[in-house]
Amino acid sequence: MIYRVAWVLVLAFLKIAAGFKIIGRENQVPSGPVIVVSNHVSNWDPLALGTALTRQVHFMAKDELFRNFLLAWLLRKLGVIPVKRGRTAKSAIVESLKVLKKGEVLGIFPEGTRNLTGEILKPNAGAVMLALRARAPILPVALSGTREFRKMKAIIGKPIYLDQYYDEKLDKKQIDKISEDIMNNIRQLLKTA
């Protein structure tokens, strides 16, 4: 309930204040587990990405945000998963897999941090590793205009299914290659913005 109310209010605000447009809504995965991935250049990105999709998106966020009791309560109600920055937190992986096992949507920014250059950074492999473990498709989304907070767009690409890899044991190099291919997909979407 809190998520849906927040979703409506944030979407209305972004449309009015930043001209937010959503392209490719028909590419959403309507049910089952999915990992949505995007470029990350602004603090507005989680809000834009979350409102671009009609299903609730569970994000990971730095654990410092959970130090304030009231903010921690709200973030948990919104489905946010705390993560310790700078290292792989086993609890974050476990919680992320729980979200996916329940058939829900997990939002990840593969670059790992806000990219202040505007160029897409080398991705972390976490999204692909989780997708393989949960047998979930990856939905690429390109965000533009979030840094300037004007003419904002979310361009939703077609889902990427990794079925051919589910029963294979991939090494780090192969997972990194798939991760880079997904970021290249986002780069191509950005060119249409």
UniProtKB/TrEMBL annotation:
The lineage of its organism: Bacteria, Bacillati, Bacillota, Clostridia, Eubacteriales. SMART domains: PlsC. It comes from Thermincola potens (strain JR). This is 1-acyl-sn-glycerol-3-phosphate acyltransferase. The HXXXXD motif is essential for acyltransferase activity and may constitute the binding site for the phosphate moiety of the glycerol-3-phosphate. It is an enzyme of class 2 (transferase). Residues 34-146 form the Phospholipid/glycerol acyltransferase domain. Keywords: Acyltransferase, Lipid biosynthesis, Lipid metabolism, Phospholipid biosynthesis, Phospholipid metabolism, Transferase. Its EC number is 2.3.1.51. It holds the Pfam family Acyltransferase.
